Amino acid sequence: MGVAWVLAVAGELRAGADTGSALQRCGSRFGVGAAAAHAARMGADIPTALEVDAARTPILRSVAAAWSVSQQTGAGLADVLERIADGHRRGLEVRRTLDVELAGPRATARLMSLLPAIGVGLAMLLGADPLRWFISSVPAATCLLTGITLNLAGFLWIRRIVRGIEARL
């Protein structure tokens, strides 16, 4: 919704609307930027109001910075707003692509962590009693604990790699 609001404000500005009326029209139409629309009506500081609105719609933090620079320099705002919207949209596309690409490693980590339990279950179905063997002696119990520890470590390691990749974007 934030990207649509930013593009709508840019369109209003391109059409010749002043910033106050553009914020008011787009704010009522999209339900975004209420504090900025109120600030425009009252003649208050719009970038500060946009920062307040950014708590609910993060893209407005970039809009606030652009708005501040535009007020200080007199530079046009419509092109910058369109670029902000385009950059945000591309970021969302990258995030979606990353989620799809990381679905495989996530599923592999889950499956690999379940395989030992599946193996024990299959052995029990075939008539073996692996659980009794695991508690029959100290070396067998050590084997069980080592396997559980390594399985958990492998799962956490893959999860950490995936989260590290996600954090970089």
How many distinct domains?
2
Overall radius of gyration: 28 Å
Oligomeric category: single chain
Total E-strand runs? 0
Order of helices and strands: HHHHHHHH
Number of helices: 8
Protein structure class: mainly alpha
Mean pLDDT value: 89
Sheet-strand content, in percent, reads: under 5%
Distance between the termini: 21 Å
Q: Identify the overall geometry.
A: rod-shaped
Helix content: over 70%
- Low-confidence stretches are none
Main sheet properties: none
Short structural summary:
The protein is mostly helical. 83% of the residues lie in helices and 0% in strands. Helix 1 (2-14) runs antiparallel to helix 6 (78-125), helix 3 (34-42) packs antiparallel against helix 4 (46-53) and helix 5 (59-73) packs antiparallel against helix 6.
Can you walk me through this structure?
- The protein contains 8 helices and no strands.
- By secondary structure, the protein is an all-alpha fold.
- It has 2 domains: 2-76, no CATH class; 90-167.
- Helix 1 (2-14) packs antiparallel against helix 6 and helix 4 (46-53) runs antiparallel to helix 5 (59-73).
- The radius of gyration is 28 Å and the shape is rod-shaped.
Key words describing this protein structure:
169 residues, mainly alpha, 83% helix, 0% strand
